[in-house]
Amino acid sequence: MDGYNAYDGIDGDEAGPKVTIREMDRTTIKFNLTNTSLAFANSIRRVMLAEVPTIAIDLVEIESNTSVLADEFLAHRLGLIPLSTKGIEDMVDPRECDCDPICDRCTVVLRLSVVNRSSDQHVKVFARDLFVESVGGANYNRANGVHGTSSEDMPPLGTPILMDRDKQGPLICQLRRGQELKVKCLAKRGIAKEHAKWAPTAAIGFEYDPWNKLRHTTLWYETDPKAEWPEPEKNGQWEEPPTGDERFNYEAEPETFYIDLEGTGVMPPDQIMHSGIQVLQNKLASIIRDLDSDNQGQTNGYDGGFSPPMNGGQSAYGGNTAYGAGTAYGQDPGYQTPGFGGAGATSVYGSATPYGRQPYP
Amino acid sequence: MSNDAEMTDAQGGAEANGAEEFVHEKQRLKILPGSSDTAASFAFEKEDHTLGNALRYIIMKNPDVEFCGYSIPHPSEAVMNVRIQTWDGVSVWDVLRKALDDLCDLCDVVEEKFTKARDEFNAEHPDRMKKKGMTKNKLATTRTIQQHRRYHEQGELAHMKFWKLI
Ligand SMILES: [Zn+2]
């Protein structure tokens, strides 16, 4: 390990990653991330897309629905309504909360109650008609950011985000004369990996090497790619265009990434970036914790720490995997992933295998 | 089989090594059979390319590492495997630990640079500052760093010197 640190000798503050912000507004940040690897930049992109916790309506109790839309259709639409994530970091994940069935640490209750009693005009039901109600029933505060007095401009947690000029928010449904809609919505914390309604981003643009000097892509062409393909107008000005006569640099690696981070409005875009990095660090921290708690692994090396394989490696991945019997590493018959093959009850996800307790078959 | 002795160890260890202290989170890191101190395969439960590729990259940066690769053996199983082989008897545990620390530091640096760039941009565009609704989220940031520092024993990395590697 000593040789590793020898690299620390090279100096300069210019080394290391750089961030240049190109544009920024209420929902979007466009920035360049320089001097990082593709692997790391992509991790940040992925984590922002899929693993930043936000809040969305997850359960809908329909008290009355005489609209033309089916209950489940409505529930789906309600789930997709963007809700403010202000203070989401203090919200408890519903699966980790020990309450029964809900409490105000893990749930925000929203109510929607609209009737068209007498109008021949359709009554339009918008997201702004959802009212946040605390679980206890107290603190019934009107939506639309009345409480937005803190440092952030975001409305309180769970309040629908209204971004249009008239502050109506998305249209949920329309009611004819005599139709009624009365629902109770339970909004929970979640991540987009489970359902896209929890995504904080509408899209993330991710580009590198706009002139394709690295030839990570092949441009299709009839006779001449230069004549047929437009110049990269978006990010091309940040890098030198190829002169055409240089030799291919096979050692070059992508190092500047052009990221267009487009939020949905539930979270300011810089917050998405911060939360993304935090999620990534939490992943690392939890593995470091595993490593540290696993004394056996540290002291005893490979003897400790693994779940014994199930069913003698009879799974589809059986004996001939890379780690398997035939290889140089094989001390055991080949098992790939622990928990493959056999009854689900004995899988690593099942309850039957608390880490390293089951005897070998 | 000679495995009997090992299993006694593992069993004792599992109880003694404080697994119960961490009941709130299940052990997600496992070492696969056939591993040695200098050539080992780890299984990361509930991880994917997000961690896998970045970890692979940072491990490969370590000159003590002969080989590192990752794979997701089956798309419907949330498991990611990492293979590490080292030179000169260097322990894979040290390599893995160092990679995790380095990646955490890398996150800190990017976070810091991003915050700085954002604040500079805001200062340059004071007119936009108001409607933007940008957050002062120092709170979330410091929390992460503190949390990280707690798991961060190797002080020499604290100043992100490792940057010269990346
Ligand atoms: Zn609860």
UniProtKB/TrEMBL annotation, chain A:
<dbReference type="InterPro" id="IPR011263">
    <property type="entry name" value="DNA-dir_RNA_pol_RpoA/D/Rpb3"/>
</dbReference>
<dbReference type="InterPro" id="IPR036643">
    <property type="entry name" value="RNApol_insert_sf"/>
</dbReference>
<keyword id="KW-0240">DNA-directed RNA polymerase</keyword>
<feature type="domain" description="DNA-directed RNA polymerase RpoA/D/Rpb3-type">
    <location>
        <begin position="28"/>
        <end position="290"/>
    </location>
</feature>
<dbReference type="Pfam" id="PF01193">
    <property type="entry name" value="RNA_pol_L"/>
</dbReference>
<dbReference type="Pfam" id="PF01000">
    <property type="entry name" value="RNA_pol_A_bac"/>
</dbReference>
<keyword id="KW-0804">Transcription</keyword>
<dbReference type="InterPro" id="IPR011262">
    <property type="entry name" value="DNA-dir_RNA_pol_insert"/>
</dbReference>
<dbReference type="InterPro" id="IPR001514">
    <property type="entry name" value="DNA-dir_RNA_pol_30-40kDasu_CS"/>
</dbReference>
<protein>
    <recommendedName>
        <fullName>DNA-directed RNA polymerase RpoA/D/Rpb3-type domain-containing protein</fullName>
    </recommendedName>
</protein>
<comment type="similarity">
    <text>Belongs to the archaeal Rpo3/eukaryotic RPB3 RNA polymerase subunit family.</text>
</comment>
<dbReference type="InterPro" id="IPR022842">
    <property type="entry name" value="RNAP_Rpo3/Rpb3/RPAC1"/>
</dbReference>
<dbReference type="InterPro" id="IPR036603">
    <property type="entry name" value="RBP11-like"/>
</dbReference>
<dbReference type="InterPro" id="IPR050518">
    <property type="entry name" value="Rpo3/RPB3_RNA_Pol_subunit"/>
</dbReference>
Automatic annotation (TrEMBL), chain B:
<protein>
    <recommendedName>
        <fullName>DNA-directed RNA polymerase RBP11-like dimerisation domain-containing protein</fullName>
    </recommendedName>
</protein>
<dbReference type="InterPro" id="IPR036603">
    <property type="entry name" value="RBP11-like"/>
</dbReference>
<dbReference type="Pfam" id="PF13656">
    <property type="entry name" value="RNA_pol_L_2"/>
</dbReference>
<keyword id="KW-0804">Transcription</keyword>
<dbReference type="InterPro" id="IPR022905">
    <property type="entry name" value="Rpo11-like"/>
</dbReference>
<dbReference type="InterPro" id="IPR008193">
    <property type="entry name" value="RNA_pol_Rpb11_13-16kDa_CS"/>
</dbReference>
<keyword id="KW-0240">DNA-directed RNA polymerase</keyword>
<keyword id="KW-0539">Nucleus</keyword>
<dbReference type="InterPro" id="IPR009025">
    <property type="entry name" value="RBP11-like_dimer"/>
</dbReference>
<dbReference type="InterPro" id="IPR033898">
    <property type="entry name" value="RNAP_AC19"/>
</dbReference>
<comment type="similarity">
    <text>Belongs to the archaeal Rpo11/eukaryotic RPB11/RPC19 RNA polymerase subunit family.</text>
</comment>
<feature type="domain" description="DNA-directed RNA polymerase RBP11-like dimerisation">
    <location>
        <begin position="40"/>
        <end position="112"/>
    </location>
</feature>
